[in-house]
Amino acid sequence: MDSSQRHAIVGIMTYTLLSDEELFALVRDREDEQAYRTLYRRYDKRLYAYCLRALGDHELAQDVFQTIAMTVFDKRRSFIDGSFAAWLFTITRNMCLKAIRSRKHNVEFNEEYIAPDETESHSQDFLLKKALKDAIESLPEEFKEALELRYFDDLSYEDIAAALNITVSLAKVRVFRAKKLITKKLSPILDELR
Amino acid sequence: MTNDELLAGYLDRSLSEDQLIELEARRNAEPAFAQEANEMLTVEKLLVLATPVVTPPVDFLSSVESTMAAKVAAGSSAGGFFSGLASSAWTWIAGACVVVVGGYYVATLESLRSESAQPATTPTIISTPSLTTPESSAPADEITKPQIKSNSTSPTPTPVSNPTKSVSTPDPKTAPTSVDMTTKNSDRALEALVKDLQACRASGDHVRCSQIALNVGRAYRMRGSINDAEENFTLALSEAQIARLVQFEIEANGELGVTAQQQGRHSDAKERFSQAVALGQRNGIPTEKWAKALREIEK
Question: Which of A48, B48, B210, B284 fits as disulfide partner to B248, beta carbons 3.0 to 4.6 Å?
């Protein structure tokens, strides 16, 4: 490994240690390309998964994803403080809602996007997963959204609250109620499995 | 604390030691609560494992990254303000309006002059193609959106195209800035890709390297730099082989076939296409594009 390669790796490692907000400040104030790339790679797959979940098809998800990438860059000056993740997911959510409204195309989450899992061949697991999926689908929209942000997008309650424009305690309540409703639906199956 | 509050805290792992003792006490005292707590704990575990596994289109995400990174880098250059102006739809619309108003003014003067000279004249036609295109009325964010979407089902990475889409129909005579800007952006995009490839090689990520090298190769070929293209496709192939990424191996072989064909090395091209097709057949991956290229070269 020559010195330039070593230098590049050390540079990447330094960026990796920075928080989202520090990285974004570098992008905003210094137009730092490496900071942008580091931040992008932290969120690209999660954001894409969110878009796909919300919109139900890859083509539309790609359209919206591109728009989000542009919007984040164009609006970089408007992000002053707070959580970057919350700001990002607020933009993402708004863009997805806009796309859903404009195309009137709210497709339910499609099973084909879930990669085949070996454990699914086991009938009990399969039944449980299927029941869980159905239970999530049947949740009221505001509960479902909060739950998915928590478990699928791995956001903190503070970030969920900011993204949904609600209080932190309401975010907690929604996630808990969602789990409670799911438990209620799954209770007979869990009983059977016991 | 209510049972629900205790349960919520328990599931979020936010209970204090005292609260945990309280929870245990209630679980022992109330069998219904104990059952609920157990069931919710099971659901919690299921939820953690239930995150849908989405296979992201890596080539698409990588293309967006490169385009946007080039945009970020371009923003730091001295011409950032002007390029910002140039990429704004409103600037283009305002420019088009100036052209139309100016043209109308000149035409009116001309017609007044000719009217005074000869009363019967044919009407003057002012050509304003840029204002009649539907794109000119689109919002700014749609106009500047990078057109880099690729086919999600195919592993074929699409070369980065120009991130700024001009509003008016490009006419080399009337809108030279638009053409220059596009070239400049595509230069930057290629530079960013090459930089990305260097960083990637340093990190030893063979999957990503293969993918970027394919993009770089295609970008070079689009510019007519066949040797550079070939070099990058060869790199993409070796990286794909190391990473055991058959899909990229097929693509790299196919692309090498195309470059060989472009250089008049038909037997090489045939061999590359054959390899791409054979790999596809062995692994159940569709290779219609390369099979077609093979059929054509065999003719």
Answer: B210
